[in-house]
Amino acid sequence: xxxxxxxxxxxxxxxxxxxxxxxxxxxxxxxxxxxxxxxxxxxxxxxxxxxxxxxxxxxxxxxxxxxxxxxxxxxxxxxxxxxxxxxxxxxxxxxxxxxxxxxxxxxxxxxxxxxxxxxxxxxxxxxxxxxxxxxxxxxxxxxxxxxxxxxxxxxxxxxxxxxxxxxxxxxxxxxxxxxxxxxxxxxxxxxxxxxxxxxxxxxxxxxxxxxxxxxxxxxxxxxxxxxxxxxxxxxxxxxxxxxxxxxxxxxxxxxxxx
Length: 258
Prior knowledge:
Blueprint (H helix, E strand, L loop, with lengths): L4 H24 L29 H5 L14 H20 L3 H23 L4 H14 L8 H26 L6 H41 L10 H26 L1
Helix pairs in contact: 1-3, 1-4, 3-4, 4-5, 4-8, 5-7, 6-7, 7-8
């Protein structure tokens, strides 16, 4: 879909601002802190960050990745998440147009970004995100023309039920917990948004990507099967891939079987 250049620029800027807010969520939600108050401050010297040092991406570049007050380094992940927000906002606008559909998809992707980075940092997927996300994205999915409410409802059951079954069987066979309840609730939330067909694709894509990345990580770390790798980021990746390329990839795969 062709979108004017000014709208693309505004969309990207808006997305980076959302990315900046996601950084707040990623840092504060696991610590049970308010995401609204107080304003952002340096984690090291606790100095409040003025608005002109809080401009997404640009402030990081101007400050050369350091706090203005104490010169402590600022993690590269902050501008990276802001960049992700901008790029995905742009991708949603170009793929779905400046429509309610595009806004809903971007809100879903923004939620997945926050979940993925929290899981990477803390090995948890907060219930404060996934549980409200299930009914919210079930209702939001009504604005998505490719998903019916029936498909969304089945997606919730299939998403939560499939991982619950896998986790139960694994624990029964090994006596160890191999998958946390957070992953189960996350996949139920994903199912609410993309339906049961999307769940099948997400599980396949997440397992494939997770296997490759997991093997490389285990080899590099030298810990072998003892290395714990969060599954949430791979579920998020699988769902995002489905949103943009799912139908194309499924058609390609089915044609390969004929």
